[in-house]
Amino acid sequence: MPNQLAAETSPYLRQHAENPVEWYPWGPEALALARREDRPILLSIGYAACHWCHVMAHESFEDPDTAQLMNELFVNVKVDREERPDLDAIYMQAVQAMTGQGGWPMTVFLTPDGEPFYGGTYFPPDDRHGMPSFRRVLAGVAQAYRAPEGIARAVEALREMYARQAAPTSASGQVTRQTLHQAARGLLQRADSRHGGFDGAPKFPPAMALDFLLRHWSRTRDEPALEHLRFSMRRMARGGLHDQVGGGFHRYTVDAEWLVPHFEKMLYDNALLARLAVHLWQATGDPDARRVAEDTVDWVAREMTSPEGGFHSSLDADSEGEEGRFYVWDASELDEHLGADAPLVRDYYGVTEGGNFEGRNILHVPEDPDLVAARQHVTVAELDAAVARARRVLYDVRSARVWPARDEKIIAGWNGLMLRAVAAAARAFDRDDYRAMAVRNGEFLRRELVHEGRALRLRPADHRRVPGFLEDHAAVALGFVALYELTFDRRWLDDARQLAESIVTWFWDDTAGAFFDTARDAETLITRPRDVTDNAVPSGTSLTVELLLHLADLHGDAELRRRPDWVLATLAEGMARYPTAFGHLLGAADLAVYGAVEVAIAGSPVNADFRRLAAEVSRHYVPSLVLAGGQAVAAGELALLADRPLADGHATAYVCRAHACERPTVDPVTLGEQLAQAPLAG
Fold first, then answer.
1. Helix axes 540-555, 583-594, angle to 10 degrees
2. In whole angstroms, how large is the CA radius of gyration of the chain?
3. 76 has which bridge partners?
4. pLDDT per residue as tens digits for the range 233-249
5. CA nearest 31: which of 115, 95, 88, 90?
6. Nearest-angstrom CA–CA distance, 409 and 10
7. pLDDT tens-digit readout, 581-592
8. Who's near 507: CB < 8 A, 6+ residues apart?
9. Distance of alpha carbon 635 from alpha carbon 626, whole angstroms
């Protein structure tokens, strides 16, 4: 018989609907049952594309004996971390405090009041590698729960931790250029000079930290920062982290070389990496960066976009019960399908008879293509053509396999991140198809996920109505700002401003001097989560700081700056000391420290002379760009367009920084020269 998850809308929860475990979704029914029967709660948190979540489910949750033990001793609750990041954040803090590490699947034991007292991540079915078996953990926790003194001590310690984290903030210093320089030095000290990225295995793509290094280089011309970024992007793009056939990036690799991934693909990783690649192309003209950006956006358009224009959440790592089965190849398969191109393509992708992953091959590019071309006695152009042909053939062959499951949740915040990336690619590469893709997604978000100026987490037509979190509001608003920069349609900017006002109303707390991750009218939990660090996605706080700083400059509104300036002052010391934890916030701090490069284009966006000026802006990397365009007489309260007349009836560009402006110009070449100098000004 299905358990209580059968009627849930989350794909992750439905994956467990046939378990013999008597699962409940998070809610009043489960909490009331635990209080009524005085049983502890076993809270299991994961997500649909999580490989080790599937492993633990198969080993333990599908096992009748283990399920019987769980049902006798606990009230069992399943949570999709992507649906409820607030619960995930609260209980992840507890697990990290108790064990020194975190991850998914997350297993937390709670009192009937929802207070954690023991937890961990994956537990094996038998004692293994120093880890106790899950059944032994269950018995031990149940026994410990009957000794109230020990449970009370554990609960009180965690209460104190939550109280400290909810305490009012205080300034740790002003964010200065020195803060940003120290953060950049700290990142480069942790750089992996052999393989790219930072530190060792496992390797996660550090898109936000690398984007900050690009900003740092644009200010200082610190060449090691740029070289490490380019090297890291090249190694990630040529490694197994990158799907060489279908495009897009996997979540992370288990090794330091970017070769062997956990094969799930997450929308947010690809959003951050695609936007970084666009920026790198704008800054350097690197053709590899453009290929990465377009390859990733094309994958989203082809495999991750709903019929209505929303972006799906993830692709699973597993298919046919095996991790990575969909993505790996036998050497004989390439020989069979690629004909005369097979030897060349095998050499290019490092394919061998013995393979590099459980006897099969993860396609990667282990050598520079120039070396492969020379060894194969072909030109680089001929090699590129053969690889392009092979990708098309192999994609068709792979499409006939059993596909990994797709989590079709449409999450507002993740869509906002990808909308920014698609809009940036549309601007930079002058791609009409990307422009249409971005506008369609923006229309979808406005119609389905924004209601009365507030964001929802998920589309309510497909899922239970979950109020939007801070990251949802800020990411969608920044996506709308990117759409305005792409289209100069004022309605997108007005929608972004309305979401920003909702953020201040519902998420800011004057007493704490901080933005919280949940709105003040959200469900009351054991604490109100407030995580300021940038982890797999930018924190809601760092996205909000960027949004408010950008809108403050665009509208000439000093009041909008007050809160983000304070937040930066409270986190100045942390950013300098722990830069890998603040990659996105460091980018927002760059805008605050150096000020915006303001570009106003006066004129009609439909006219050719306006479009030429806008296209010139789009080709340049301007990290603190604040862009406005349109007729000054129709600008209303948009300060950046005020008093910006046309020159002799032609569209005219104004470039200003730190209250100093270049000479207005109607010439795209002159505008390009001004923009090339702007990032270093001041």
1. 20
2. 26
3. 23, 42
4. 999 999 999 999 999 99
5. 115
6. 7
7. 999 999 999 999
8. 470, 473, 515, 516, 517, 518, 519, 520, 540, 544
9. 15
DSSP 569-618: HHHHHHHHH-GGG-HHHHHHHHHHHH--EEEEEES-TTSHHHHHHHHHHH
Confidence of residue 681 (pLDDT cuts 50, 70, 90): very low
Structure tokens at 121: 């991540």
Alpha helices, DSSP H only, in 43-176? 51-56, 64-73, 85-99, 134-145, 148-165
Asked if 133 and 126 count as a contact pair (C-beta separation under 8 A), the reply is yes
For residue 182, the SS3 value is: helix
CA angle, residues 281, 546, 299, in degrees to nearest 5: 45
Q: What is the DSSP string of 631-663?
A: -GGG-TT-GGGTT---BTTB-EEEEEETTEEPP
Structure tokens, 216: 């740092």
Report the DSSP pairing between strands 625-630 and 23-25. unpaired
Structure confidence by residue, pLDDT tens digits, 154-169:
999 999 999 988 899 9
- Report d(CA 314, CA 414) in Å as an integer: 10
Q: Residue 234: name the closest of 329, 366, 417, 322 by CA.
A: 366
Q: Which residue has the tokens 């994958």?
A: 299
Amino acid at 610: F
Rounded-to-integer distance, Cα 504 and Cα 499, Å: 9
Distance of CA 634 to the CA centre of its chain: 36
Q: What is the pTM of this model?
A: 0.95
What residue has token string 């460091």?
586
Whole-angstrom distance, CA of residue 581 vs CA of residue 598: 29
Exposed e or buried b for every residue in 193-220, given b needs 16+ CB within 10 A?
A: eebbbbeeeebebbbbbbbbbbbbbbbe
Which has the closest alpha carbon to 470: 405, 413, 394?
A: 413
Q: Are 542 and 532 in contact (CB under 8 A)?
A: yes
Under 8 Å between Cβ of 123 and 137: yes
- Within 13 Å, how many C-alpha atoms sit on residue 326's CB side? 28
Bridge partners of residue 601, in order along the sequence: 629, 653
Instruction: Judge contact between 113 and 35, C-beta under 8 A.
Output: yes
Helices (H), 315-431: 331-338, 342-348, 369-376, 380-399, 412-429
